[in-house]
């Protein structure tokens, strides 16, 4: 019997070698490529937009008026093709000299005019410098009359800008938008970019897309990314296929898709919810999936400790916000109330709602003189608040730390053997 090659090259466990595009499944790999359908029965996809973001920097002028020569120096850092220095894109400077003491808003207009008209260009070097400046950024008035806005001429380009003022004026720069020079990985989940278009959608109703982050709301997660025509061919040594900026990205809407798993998914995790990575860790990219055990590996459980203020014949209402769920636990103390009685009563109500599939699943408690509530090992946070007459005295004793987002909508359909493709069931909308 021939010796099969190893599942992964030794230098990176996320490197997965697939056969060429004829679709033959390797004998030692259970599933096909991430971003394809599990059982070859295509269900439904939609198209999203992965835009190349244009860099914008606002420079707020203050403390004027000033009298003298201002200068602006722009240094390109990267372009869509890579390093700007490699393309011999040197820094460029323009100047503007005031005509007496000018207010900050007047200086802004003067700087814009100097950039647009090339006034006072005396030498060939001046002309060359001015042309390079105009090929890097366009100047305009920002959110206020005293704000000078610099916008990259090329989408995807990054730059640094230094506005040198004349005393007593000062300049405060703020980056308004910065290009997302990452890529979207095939087989991973992505997020709707609400900063683009109309609440994240273009005129055709297609979502603008970006990488998932720790602040991404569950409702804004879409995917996994489907293997479409705009990806580069996968060759030996590649970790994954990916979409670059300015691409039309195919996204699975429902069916059973092969997602990119960052761990082996055991049989016990079949039909359990997917956890989606939101924090980059080496080769493990945002959008990868794992189960509850994998999500717990780098996480810290959220812990709250409650010391009730004991009052007889009082309704204690503890409102717990947990993801998209809001649940109120209630207990009415008796005529000889005690702290142990109140904590036991609230815990009993919690235990009615924290099993698998229920709204507070994964939150456990220990009662006594205090009530200690502990969130899931994956670090998903929750917030208990007393809303009734009775005060539970809630204090967060350990903040939850997560590396993944619980995505209850999708479930693992079958186990996997290692890093790589794993079937994920996406319900019909």
Give the count of structural domains: 3
**Low-confidence parts, pLDDT < 50 over ≥5 residues?**
1-28
Helical percentage: 10-25%
- Percent strand equals 25-35%
Q: Based on Cα principal axes, name the global outline.
A: flat
- By DSSP (H or I, 4+ residues per run), the number of helices equals 4
Succession of helices and strands: EEEEEHHEEEEEEEEEEEEHEEEHEEEEEE
The total strand number stands at 26
Widest sheet: strand order?
1-15-26-25-16-17
Q: Could you tell me the mean pLDDT?
A: 85
The gyration radius over C-alpha positions equals: 28 Å
N-to-C span? 47 Å
How many strands, what sense, and barrel or not for the largest sheet?
6 strands, antiparallel
Give the class from helix and strand content and strand pairing. Answer: mainly beta
Topology, pairings included?
Blueprint: E1 44-50, E2 56-62, E3 69-79, E4 82-83, E5 92-97, H1 104-117, H2 124-136, E6 137-141, E7 147-152, E8 158-164, E9 170-177, E10 184-185, E11 190-192, E12 209-210, E13 221-222, E14 242-243, E15 247-261, E16 273-277, E17 289-290, H3 292-296, E18 303-306, E19 315-322, E20 325-332, H4 339-350, E21 364-366, E22 371-374, E23 383-386, E24 394-398, E25 404-412, E26 420-426
Antiparallel strand pairs: 1-15, 2-7, 2-9, 3-4, 3-5, 3-8, 6-7, 10-14, 11-12, 11-13, 15-26, 16-17, 16-25, 18-22, 18-24, 19-20, 19-23, 21-22, 25-26
